[in-house]
Amino acid sequence: MKRRNILKAGIAGAAAGALAAPAIVGAAESFRWRMTTSFPPGLPFYQSGPGSAEWIVKSIDEATNGRLKIKLFAAGELVKWNGGFDAVTGGTVEMNSAVAYYWSGKVPALQYFGTVPFGMTFQGQNAWYYHGGGLELWNEIYNDFGVIGMPCGNSGVQMTGWFKKPVNSLADFKGLKMRIPGLGGKIYKSIGVNVKSLGGGDIFPALERGVIDAAEWVGPVQDRRLGLHKAAKYYYNTGWHEPSTTTELLINKKAFNALPKDIQAIVRHVAAAANIIAHTSAEALNGDALEDLVKNHGVKVLSLSTEVIEELRKKTAEILEAGAAADPVTRKVHDSFMSFKTKHDKWANTSSRQFAVRVRGG
Amino acid sequence: MKRRNILKAGIAGAAAGALAAPAIVGAAESFRWRMTTSFPPGLPFYQSGPGSAEWIVKSIDEATNGRLKIKLFAAGELVKWNGGFDAVTGGTVEMNSAVAYYWSGKVPALQYFGTVPFGMTFQGQNAWYYHGGGLELWNEIYNDFGVIGMPCGNSGVQMTGWFKKPVNSLADFKGLKMRIPGLGGKIYKSIGVNVKSLGGGDIFPALERGVIDAAEWVGPVQDRRLGLHKAAKYYYNTGWHEPSTTTELLINKKAFNALPKDIQAIVRHVAAAANIIAHTSAEALNGDALEDLVKNHGVKVLSLSTEVIEELRKKTAEILEAGAAADPVTRKVHDSFMSFKTKHDKWANTSSRQFAVRVRGG
Question: Strand, coil or helix: what is B44?
Fold first, then answer.
């Protein structure tokens, strides 16, 4: 859409003081959008707080001086938690926030724009999006659906999860009843885990009553909110299954293209700002939450054994390769991701890993 | 400054299609600013390319629809590379991009808003800025100077530097002639290094001719540009001295306060977007550059020995503590930084370190 109103307003410019040049009035249109999310009302990081869906809506309002006002609906308020993709592609709403792997039932390759088991962490994953062709591939896929996707947050390395008893060996995983969805679940299943699918609100009661032996959710902040530490005390790290889960901003393309170029730019910059603001808020909050869990709630933080990690690594490679072999789009995305990862790993191993191991210690 | 022109433009709104609500024209003023930087023309990452000063100026122009136009001057074009602080505080220009530790001669505590030896990496450093009180402290200091500071990029973990011969023990550092500025230089001096201060352009000839035995600059991309691999082959990592060097956007407060609120918001969002876009561009480019240096230029990547790292750690703690003891502002910033670091380290050691060591390997 072309801008229709370029008005000169020399008087305002002249009054604006020494720093102001003659003024040009900005684009005149204003827009009312609706945005859904996959997250419950008030959920820290995703729905509320710095970098969240609420923050994005408010930031766009401020930066556009009210020219793009977005009414926000949490999961269930307008559509179900997993209804955002259909709502945006169908034009019911203009925008949705979720994680792209929620839609991997429709397009398997979308898994790579959520997180990849044994994949890259925040810095590499985003280097791939912004500078390694990842964002282009993401939108090549979405082009057929008339939508645009971009990152707007990142959980960082998630925790492996909560276990009622320590799990030391592969044998301890055989028959273990564990709540874990998606690709992570598929991989656990391949080592004999009895994988259960449960909504967020159902995890605590199931874990507490012993219906399940273990559960994966997100990390210290979100897990504490669900009370998982009251039902299990062994909290495993390494986050092999979700090293950098990306929050997705999904936008109806027709609606986006109808925005003036300046508002389009604002939406993109706010999404990128949300990406780092949200991610670092998780980094900050998880430090506090983990300390609280360990100091005040008797939680023990443990690491998976090498035997378990290496078997999961092997199964992950097999399952990712089978997915790529079965679908040309997945093949293309997989190869782009892995080729970038190989290169980035060399840098990460020299820079951040050396720093983490030799300098930070711990 | 209050906005002077809120014009209703119903016709444009009515023409804007089903998604558009009645329109309100944005703030009418426009502004012409000048921005200096500490960087030479075309310098990747800092001056040119994604997330750089050029990118920031262009992004602000687009997102404000030309209402804030900024004329950019590289180092030496309007003021010297280290003249940006005076230019912004004095009102010669409205904006500057540099690294805050360049001004630590004026206010020692500004070191902490550049990078801290043995400090935090990208995620922790930014979590401290955005969510741990860091940004507030930064601007508490700048308030007295009538300026505002914010992060707009990050080099990530820098390389320790280039050495003509391997350095295995502390003894190898005694009398070693090394180019390294700032706090890193002060710490090397304390272990007996003969520290040299040289501008970027003087490093290669000095290293090649053997006037110096070693040199620190930034990382693979920038170092290769200077040709340092042609003068020395041993490239050490761990980046103990600069784990997350923050690029600073410095803004004249009076000029910023004269902007309408929407443009202020845009400047802040573009700076935050630049922070992640620039940082991840370094992550992406360094992977390529390091591979090239090793494969095609016979560079050997090595790690400092534990003996050397531990002595540097001890000296760093002493020197930082002495700085804090000598100055109440530094004390306040130091304590905030270290207290946040202690908490964040616990999370980083559980999440990203475990992932780096156990999952990514290398």
Answer: strand
